TrEMBL record:
One of its GO terms (cellular component) is cytoplasm. It is an enzyme of class 2 (transferase). It is found in: Cytoplasm. Keywords: Cytoplasm, Methyltransferase, S-adenosyl-L-methionine, Transferase. This is Protein-L-isoaspartate O-methyltransferase. GO terms for biological process: methylation. The keyword tRNA processing does not apply. Residues 30-57 are annotated as: Disordered. It comes from the Bacteria. Belongs to the methyltransferase superfamily. L-isoaspartyl/D-aspartyl protein methyltransferase family. GO terms for molecular function: protein-L-isoaspartate (D-aspartate) O-methyltransferase activity.
Length: 203
């Protein structure tokens, strides 16, 4: 059984929280175009091609902490891009988890898939999104869903893909939102600050 969704991210063996440990061990530079790698340590978005970016590291860390990913979780990463967030999620779930990144841009999906494969974390992968499908429905739903692009409105299609006790973190317009699937099947939505992201393509 997964830990209570309200629990904090699990500590790593050296006392760091899981998010800090993942951010330290999964090098952002390995998920950037060669021309951007010298800038990997800068706390700002960096272009990765096709109009997309590698998000600002402090923003990524904030989203991951809000997501509260337990060890062994089944996680969907929407808008995986270069695969960096997919790899970060995999580092947090550990080998007992399952992390699927979906990306709509074919060239980025192929690059992201290769980047994630190179980490050796075989429980994570990036795939090309299915035409006309937002996310990737699965039986029983996902424990966690991370969306790294801004939606015009909260997408019901993604909310429907949350399993019981699940958490979805998504920017809607300029507001970071957390959606929780409660034990009775209802959802609770809360706001968590203002951010800027590239737009989410939903059709």
């Amino acid at each position: 059984m997964l830990p209570d969704p309200g629990t904090a991210p699990h500590p790593s063996h050296d006392g760091e929280d899981a998010v800090a440990h993942a951010m330290r061990t999964v090098a952002r530079r390995d998920f950037l175009p060669r021309s951007q790698r010298p800038l990997a340590a800068q706390d700002r978005p960096l272009p990765i091609g096709r109009g997309q970016t590698s998000s600002q590291p402090t923003t990524v860390a904030t989203m991951l902490r809000l997501l509260r990913v337990p060890v062994g979780a089944r996680v969907l990463d929407v808008g995986a891009g270069s695969g960096w967030t997919t790899a970060l999620l995999a580092a947090i779930t550990g080998p007992g988890g399952e992390v699927l990144g979906v990306e709509r841009e074919p060239a980025l999906a192929a690059w992201g898939a290769a980047n994630v494969e190179a980490t050796g974390m075989g429980w994570a992968q990036v795939v090309l999104a299915q035409p006309g499908t937002l996310g990737m429905p699965r039986p029983g739903g996902w424990d966690r869903i991370l969306v790294s692009a801004s939606a015009k409105d909260l997408p019901g299609a993604l909310v429907d893909q949350l399993g019981f006790g699940g958490r979805l973190v998504i920017p809607v317009r300029s507001t970071m939102m957390l959606v929780e699937r409660l034990p009775d099947g209802t959802t609770r939505v809360t706001d968590h600050g203002s951010y800027r992201f590239v737009p989410l393509i939903e059709d």
